[in-house]
Design goal:
With 245 residues, the protein is of the alpha/beta class. Helices cover 42% and strands 18% of the residues.
Length: 245
């Protein structure tokens, strides 16, 4: 297990609440991991997030990236989840139009493009270096997940990995993802228990697959654990046929 995955697993599954919710103890542990300021910073962020505009959110994330240099990475998807996504892409060659929502460093988008998919990556902030990184069959658009600049059913597959746990208006974001997806919606969120002090800017926590499955409100969809994450996959066209009736 990689260091980042182990730390995530330890604080979510092993570390008891009296440590997780204790500022002094968590600050001490943050110092041991090389991030002495991040505990107070992320706590402050989660408290203010519901009242912040996009520019203020960007400013917070910019500073957080300086506090945690490993936050900005090309791949924010664990190995098993990445393998599942790429296998799904290979097994469904007819589904060519992909949206990678909150694409981060763009690593997944590049891999899908290399498989011949036409991929659009969107994020609320895309760095200049990422914009200049031209990849065949792939493009970047800077936008808000709550207002995706696409028509209904624009993409065969919509992928959103490690995104919804950051969004206050999570149901609105889910509605937008479904709106632009024609056939398939794939969502990955971390399997994580809620606690007061954390190293991430998450505002939603899903300790069980059932926790996330409930908010999606589609019992026909698949929702399961994979590499200490929760992977949700929804085939939209059967749902659309039911609604059409």
């Amino acid at each position: 297990m990689k260091r980042g995955s182990f730390i995530h697993y330890f604080f979510s599954e092993v570390c008891p609440p009296f440590i997780r919710d204790n500022r002094q103890l968590m600050s001490f542990l943050a110092k041991r991991t090389g991030n002495p300021q991040v505990v107070d910073y992320t706590r402050d962020f989660r408290e203010k997030l519901p009242y912040m505009n996009n520019d203020e959110i960007k400013e917070y994330y910019t500073k957080l990236s300086m506090l945690t240099p490993n936050l900005e990475q090309e791949l924010d998807v664990k190995a098993d989840c990445l393998e599942y996504i790429l296998d799904y892409a290979i097994l469904h060659p007819e589904k060519t139009r992909w949206l990678d929502c909150a694409c981060g460093g763009g690593g997944v988008k590049k891999m899908l493009a290399n498989l011949g998919k036409k991929v659009t990556g969107v994020d609320f902030f895309i760095s200049d270096s990422l914009k200049s990184n031209i990849v065949e069959n792939a493009s970047f658009i800077e936008c808000n997940i709550l207002q995706l600049p696409f028509e209904d059913n624009s993409f065969d597959i919509v992928l959103s990995a490690h995104t919804l746990e950051h969004i206050v208006q999570i149901q609105s974001a889910i509605s937008e993802l479904r709106r632009v997806a024609k056939e398939t919606l794939i969502i990955i969120v971390p399997k994580q228990r809620e606690y007061k002090y954390t190293f991430e800017t998450h505002v939603h926590f899903f300790p069980y697959a059932e926790s996330f499955h409930r908010i999606m409100e589609n019992p026909a969809a698949k929702c399961f654990y994979l590499d200490n994450d929760i992977l949700y996959i929804e085939e939209l066209y059967p749902v659309n046929r039911i609604e059409d009736k």
